């Protein structure tokens, strides 16, 4: 109790804003994480759209207190007053909703099971939220619930008042569920079939719950009807409620829980992850795992809020995609296939959208956690073998949402940055197939691929939505395929077409506006055209946001815009224009528009992904100090370790990964290359402990609130004027010394030789 009480005091202390206090040395990094960061959100305004996920890094199952109704994507929101259950979740975002779900809820006084009637008032003042532990006092029932987890199992500890009516409700959710109670074994099994995106054949999430106390009574329930002493029920929406013998105040009931996508038997095997460990032991093991994972990055010499923001973002980056594989009774790795419904050998991960995460999340994994991404690549091989295509949004199978063929970037980058030991040839076949075919739905393969291959763009007027966005992303994806093909030694006769198509971005450039614009099948530009119109030819953004999506060839874009001076002027314009918008395509203001509007950064819309790399593009035009200014501005203004701590959707670690890279002083503008574009470090010191045993030390001792510019930079003691840093140079271990200044150095990084990679320059 003393340890937990002290942790609560630390958490309360951290909740105050602490920009002035500089932290010279940190303790355990997990103590700086606020899982509630980003949870104060709603459909029309996102401050992160996160929930306090209790679990292990990339764990198969996460758990969260549930304030929303069953099926509500906003399953936990900070401004809610009541908790209606503690839910197993795999939800990557509220817009994608959930799969593999069920919940537990303690109640007292009466056998209440309806999700509205069992909801209890609670206060954040009695809530303790950590990555590996959650606790809250449920006022209506005078019960404290505690929760801690392993990869595939969880342990609850319910502390009851003096009562002769103590219960736990198990809710298997709607859309088809099953429950069976084994009173003599103090056990409940069941399954839920609910999922939000599909199709997902033969989908069931099997679960098992065991208690350390005998059942004094039990009932199954279906929808609104309770069936007393009935031990089995299958219907659209069923659950169980079990009662215990009279308890004294402070008596505890332990519930052990596990689930499986494969079978009841496998759920029982997964339950063995808990072993005979006590609650405290499971909690400590979880804490140790988190400390080990988070300790790959060490930062100091920043404010307390900056330290907390950094580790809270790191916590978010190591959740998705989640493991979907399990260990069977023979100790073999197996998985349920969301593509054919079978149980098959090998790895599987699920719950991420590459449209978001190809930009920074996967580059972050490749640098800091490459062995985890190797497993993910092996999972992608199984995705392709079982589904016939690679997923672009897995939730847990193919989800028909968003645009692009960005699995090409995720696959290519991993190999190009050194990952080995998996079947890259099968993945190569997958990339070639996906790049040249439409898939079973518009978000898989390439929608409009025949137009794109024949014309060099997806036309505006042929009934394919967000066509300009598709074209720009396909062009970058073609670059990624070309780079991988070269690395694999594929003949130019096979891969040259992808190098050619990587230049297709030029087909949409409208010189009269110096921006990208939708183009009709006959070669004319769309008309009328407003660069402030969201959607339409673009995806969740406008032309000012998407025109920079030439990750592979920024120099080519500079040339199209009339040279460096004009290019920098266009970049500057993003920040100085008013946040005007045209929402006619959507028929109303979507939350991404509102988030841009209220940030007072002009047309810069950091709350969504398409423009997040744009700040770094000054480095390609000889004015890197503007990148340094705007990166620091965005970090300080748009990120805080608070419930409203993000400026839009966090999106599966992507928006967090932007912060992590930026705080270290560099960013992967072109993921499928071996370069990171420089910004300016946020902390006086940052260390990356690489998997290969090497370290990257980034020292900026005179960094401060005012010293935001890079005056000079040394790599291993050697002065560098480059505006980029190499991936493989980092992997060798590196000391980066940065001299920070309050005034920009307008002579550093200004020559063409200093500029980062562009395809039209660096063949």
Automatic annotation (TrEMBL):
Keyword Nuclease: no
Domain Glycosyl hydrolase family positions: 266-741
Organism from which the protein derives: Rhizosphaericola mali
Gene Ontology biological process: carbohydrate metabolic process; glycoprotein catabolic process
Gene3D superfamilies per UniProt: 2.70.98.10, alpha-1,2-mannosidase, alpha-1,2-mannosidases domains, GH92 mannosidase domain
Cofactor: Ca(2+)
Full protein name: Glycoside hydrolase family 92 protein
Kinase in keyword set: no
MF annotations from Gene Ontology: carbohydrate binding; peptide-N4-(N-acetyl-beta-glucosaminyl)asparagine amidase activity
């Amino acid at each position: 109790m003393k340890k937990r009480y002290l942790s609560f005091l630390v958490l309360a202390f951290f909740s105050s804003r602490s920009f002035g206090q500089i932290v010279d040395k940190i303790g355990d990094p997990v103590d700086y994480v606020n899982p509630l960061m980003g949870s104060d959100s709603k459909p029309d305004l996102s401050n992160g759209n996160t929930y306090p996920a209790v679990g292990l890094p990339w764990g198969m199952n996460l758990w969260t207190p549930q304030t929303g109704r069953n099926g509500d994507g906003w399953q936990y929101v900070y401004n809610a007053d009541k908790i209606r259950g503690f839910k197993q979740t795999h939800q990557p975002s509220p817009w994608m909703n959930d799969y593999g779900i069920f919940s537990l809820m303690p109640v007292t006084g009466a056998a209440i099971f309806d999700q509205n009637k069992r909801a209890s008032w609670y206060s954040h003042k009695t809530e303790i939220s950590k990555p590996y532990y959650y606790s809250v006092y449920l006022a209506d029932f005078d019960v404290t619930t505690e929760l801690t987890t392993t990869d595939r199992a969880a342990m609850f500890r319910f502390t009851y008042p003096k009562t002769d009516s103590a219960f736990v409700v198990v809710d298997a959710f709607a859309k088809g569920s099953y429950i069976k109670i084994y009173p003599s074994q103090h056990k409940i099994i069941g399954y839920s079939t609910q999922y939000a995106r599909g199709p997902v054949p033969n989908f069931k999430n099997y679960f098992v719950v065991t208690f350390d106390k005998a059942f004094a009574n039990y009932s199954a329930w279906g929808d609104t009807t309770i069936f007393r002493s009935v031990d089995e029920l299958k219907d659209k929406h069923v659950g169980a409620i079990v009662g215990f013998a009279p308890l004294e105040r402070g008596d505890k009931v332990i519930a052990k829980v596990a689930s499986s996508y494969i079978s009841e038997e496998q759920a029982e095997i997964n339950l063995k992850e808990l072993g005979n460990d006590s609650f405290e032991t499971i909690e400590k093991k979880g804490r140790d795992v988190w400390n080990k994972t988070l300790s790959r990055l060490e930062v100091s010499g920043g404010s307390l809020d900056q330290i907390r923001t950094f580790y809270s973002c790191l916590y978010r980056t190591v959740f998705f995609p989640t493991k979907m594989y399990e260990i069977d009774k023979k100790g073999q790795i197996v998985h349920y296939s969301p593509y054919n419904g079978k149980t098959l050998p090998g790895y599987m991960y699920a719950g991420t959208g590459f449209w978001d995460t190809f930009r920074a999340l996967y580059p972050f994994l490749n640098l800091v956690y490459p062995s985890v991404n190797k497993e993910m690549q092996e999972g992608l091989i199984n995705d392709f073998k079982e589904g016939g295509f690679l997923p672009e949004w897995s939730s847990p199978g193919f989800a028909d949402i968003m645009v692009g063929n960005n699995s090409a970037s995720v696959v290519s980058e991993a190999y190009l940055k050194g990952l080995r030991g998996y079947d890259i040839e099968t993945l190569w076949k997958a990339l070639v197939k996906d790049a040249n075919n439409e898939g079973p739905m518009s978000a898989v393969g390439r929608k409009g691929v025949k137009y794109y291959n024949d014309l060099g763009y997806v036309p505006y007027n042929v009934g394919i939505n967000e066509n300009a966005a598709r074209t720009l992303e396909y062009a970058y994806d073609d670059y990624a395929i070309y780079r991988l093909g070269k690395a694999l030694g594929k003949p130019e006769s096979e891969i040259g077409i992808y190098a050619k198509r990587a230049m297709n971005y030029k087909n949409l450039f409208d010189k009269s506006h110096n921006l990208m614009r939708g183009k009709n099948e006959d070669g004319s530009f769309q008309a009328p055209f407003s660069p402030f119109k969201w959607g339409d030819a673009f995806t969740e953004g406008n032309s000012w946001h998407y025109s920079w999506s030439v990750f592979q060839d920024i120099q080519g874009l500079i040339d199209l815009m009339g040279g460096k001076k004009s290019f920098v002027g266009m970049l500057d314009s993003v920040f100085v224009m008013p946040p005007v918008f045209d929402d006619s395509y959507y028929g109303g203001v979507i939350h991404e528009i509102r988030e841009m509007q209220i940030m007072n950064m002009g047309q810069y819309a950091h709350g969504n992904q398409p423009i997040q790399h744009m700040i770094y593009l000054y480095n390609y035009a000889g004015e890197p100090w503007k990148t340094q200014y705007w990166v620091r501005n965005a970090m300080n203004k748009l990120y805080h370790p608070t419930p409203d701590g993000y400026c839009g959707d966090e999106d599966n670690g992507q928006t967090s990964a932007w912060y992590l890279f930026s705080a270290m002083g560099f960013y992967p503008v072109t993921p499928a290359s071996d370069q990171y574009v420089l910004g300016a470090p946020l902390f006086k010191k940052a260390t990356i402990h690489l998997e290969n045993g090497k370290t990257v030390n980034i020292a900026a001792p005179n960094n401060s609130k005012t010293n935001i510019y890079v005056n000079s930079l040394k790599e291993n003691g050697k002065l560098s004027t480059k505006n980029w840093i190499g991936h493989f140079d980092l992997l060798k271990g590196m000391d980066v010394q940065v001299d920070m200044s309050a005034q920009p150095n307008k002579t550093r990084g200004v020559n063409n030789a200093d500029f980062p990679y562009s395809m039209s320059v660096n063949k």
